[in-house]
Design brief:
Layout lengths: L1 H10 L5 H25 L8 H11 L3 E4 L4 H13 L3 E7 L2 E7 L1
Antiparallel strand pairs: 1-3, 2-3
Helix pairs in contact: 3-4
């Protein structure tokens, strides 16, 4: 029960709400920017979902999707998946997104 009490004490704030907002607003800038970029991109998958869609498509043996952008984590997953399964991924930059295809 002590740990719950300590946890509550940590999250209690003795500042007025506007000071709390000002203190945490820098932490909210990146998520806001990321969400705005995703909504503008016209892509089906955001940057952090892209790598998770690769394995199901590889196991299915066919498929494609549009991604906001391909980060290094997704590129690494493409390489690792290709080492375990006889598949190859192709990416193509299009207007406002990247298309990811399972190559034949």
């Amino acid at each position: 029960m002590r740990s719950i009490s300590r946890l509550n004490a940590v999250f209690r704030v003795s500042m007025p709400p506007f000071e709390v907002r000002d203190a945490f607003s820098p932490l909210l800038l990146k998520p806001r920017r990321d969400a705005r970029e995703y909504l503008v991109s016209r892509a089906a998958a955001g940057e952090h979902l892209t790598d998770q869609l690769l394995l199901p498509i590889a196991l299915a043996g066919a498929g494609s999707f549009t991604a906001e952008k391909i980060n290094m984590h997704a590129r690494t997953n493409m390489t690792v998946i290709s080492q375990f399964l006889p598949v190859r991924f192709e990416t193509r930059e299009e207007d406002g997104f990247t298309r990811v295809n399972l190559a034949e």
